[in-house]
Design brief:
Blueprint (H helix, E strand, L loop, with lengths): L7 E11 L2 E8 L10 E6 L14 E4 L2 E4 L4 E7 L4 H7 L6 E8 L6 H4 L5 E7 L4 H12 L4 E7 L8 H4 L5 E5 L6 E2 L2 H10 L6 E6 L2 H14 L3 E4 L15 E3 L5 E3 H4 L2 E3 L10
Parallel strand pairs: 8-9, 8-12, 9-10, 10-11, 12-13
Antiparallel strand pairs: 1-2, 1-7, 2-6, 3-4, 3-7, 5-6, 13-16, 14-15
Helix pairs in contact: 5-6
The structure holds flavin-adenine dinucleotide and FE2/S2 (inorganic) cluster (FES).
C-alpha cells in the first residue's frame, strides 16, 4: 500500500523501557495500515538537529506492531539507541510529535507465495531485528499459518522487546551469555530445526545483525529452504531518490534496499556483507 505523499506529524501516545531498548507508540490518523517488514522514516519535530549538528536526516525504523486507535491507528516502534538519531527517538515523551513518512518498502510474502511446498514459517530474529517479526508473527497467526519463532540475544541488555512483543507465543530462545535459553547463537537452533524432517515444508523469515542474516541465508541455501531476509543499509531518503541504500545483487547490478527491499529473498543477495 502506498504511503501518503510527503511527511506528516504524529503524536507520541505511549513510551516505555523494554529490556535495554525503548518502545514508543505513535497515533497515525492518516496513513494506511503498514504490512509486516515495512518501515517509516522518522524524525522528531523538536530538537532533531541543532545548528550544523547531527542527526540531520530522518532515520529508518521498522514498524513492530500496530493496532486500532480512537482515530486512525497506533504504530509501535522498538528502538536501540546507537547514535544521535536513535538516542533522540529513545528520549521521546508522551505528547511530543514525530515527522513520519511511510509505510515504505516492500513486505514479507507468505510461505506458499515464497515456495509452493512450504506450509509453515520459521521466524528467526536477533537483537533489535526482532522488531518487524512481531507484526509478521501476528499476521501469519491471523491467517492460520503455522509459525515457529526463534529469537537470539547477545546479553540481557540487548534483549528488549521480548516480553512486550512476543508475550503471547512460544519462542525458542538463545543468548550468547547464556542468561536465557540455549547458550550460543540463534542460528544453532535454526540449524537443528532445519535438520528435522519437516524443514522442507517451512519457509524462513529473518531480521537481525548482518552476520546472523548471512548465517541464516547460508543455512537455508545449503538445505534448499526458501528464505526472506529483512536487511538494513544506511537510508537517507527512504523512497528511491538518493541511491544511498544500494546493495549488490549476485549478477553485479545493484538494488535500492528502500524500494526493492528491505525484504529480499535469500537468492537475491550473493552474501550479506558483515564485518
Ligand atoms: C529498513 C530499516 C529498518 C530499521 N529498523 C530499526 C528498528 O526497528 N529499530 C532500530 O533501533 N533501528 C532500526 N534500524 C536502524 C536505524 O535506522 C539506525 O540504527 C539509525 O539510522 C542510526 O542512526 P543514529 O543517528 O542513531 O546513529 P548513526 O550515528 O547514524 O549510526 C551509528 C552507527 O551505525 C551505522 N549505521 C547507521 N544506520 C545503519 C544502517 N541502516 N545499516 C548499517 N549501519 C548503519 C553507522 O555507520 C554508524 O557506525 C533500521 C534500519 C533500516 C534501514
Ligand atoms: S534511501 Fe534513498 S534511494 Fe534508498
Amino acid at each position: 500500500m502506498n504511503a501518503p505523499f510527503g511527511r506528516r506529524r504524529c503524536e507520541v501516545s505511549e513510551v516505555r523501557d523494554s529490556g535495554g531498548y525503548r518502545l514508543f507508540s505513535l497515533l497515525d490518523r492518516e496513513g494506511p495500515e503498514p504490512l509486516p517488514g515495512q518501515f517509516y522514516m522518522l524524525a522528531t519535530v523538536d530538537r532533531w538537529a541543532g545548528q550544523g549538528e547531527r542527526p540531520f536526516l530522518p532515520r529508518a525504523i521498522s514498524v513492530a506492531e500496530t493496532g486500532p486507535a480512537a482515530t486512525g491507528s497506533r504504530l509501535d516502534f522498538l528502538i536501540e539507541g546507537i547514535g544521535p538519531g536513535t538516542d533522540r527517538l529513545c528520549g521521546l515523551q508522551v505528547g511530543e510529535e514525530v515527522w513520519v513518512n511511510g509505510p515504505l518498502g516492500n513486505s514479507f510474502l507468505t510461505p506458499r507465495e515464497l515456495t509452493p511446498g512450504a506450509a509453515g514459517a520459521i521466524l528467526v530474529g536477533g537483537g533489535i531485528g526482532i522488531a518487524p517479526l512481531a507484526l509478521l508473527r501476528r499476521s501469519f497467526g491471523e491467517r492460520n499459518i503455522p509459525t515457529r519463532v526463534l529469537l537470539g540475544f547477545r546479553d540481557q541488555a540487548h534483549s528488549g522487546g521480548l516480553d512486550d512483543l512476543f508475550r503471547c507465543c512460544e519462542v525458542g530462545l538463545a543468548s550468547e551469555d547464556g542468561h536465557v535459553g540455549h547458550r550460543g547463537y540463534v542460528t544453532d537452533l535454526l540449524a537443528a530445526m532445519l535438520a528435522g524432517d519437516d524443514a522442507g515444508s517451512a519457509a524462513v523469515y529473518s531480521c537481525g545483525p548482518p552476520a546472523m542474516l548471512e548465517a541464516v541465508r547460508a543455512l537455508c541455501a545449503e538445505r534448499d529452504v526458501a528464505c526472506e531476509l529483512a536487511m538494513e543499509s544506511p537510508m537517507a531518503c527512504g523512497y528511491g531518490a538518493c541511491f544511498g541504500c544500494a546493495v549488490p545483487r549476485p549478477d553485479g547490478t545493484y538494488m535500492r534496499l528502500c524500494v526493492d527491499g528491505p525484504v529480499v529473498r535469500g537468492e537475491q543477495v550473493a552474501e550479506v556483507a558483515h564485518a
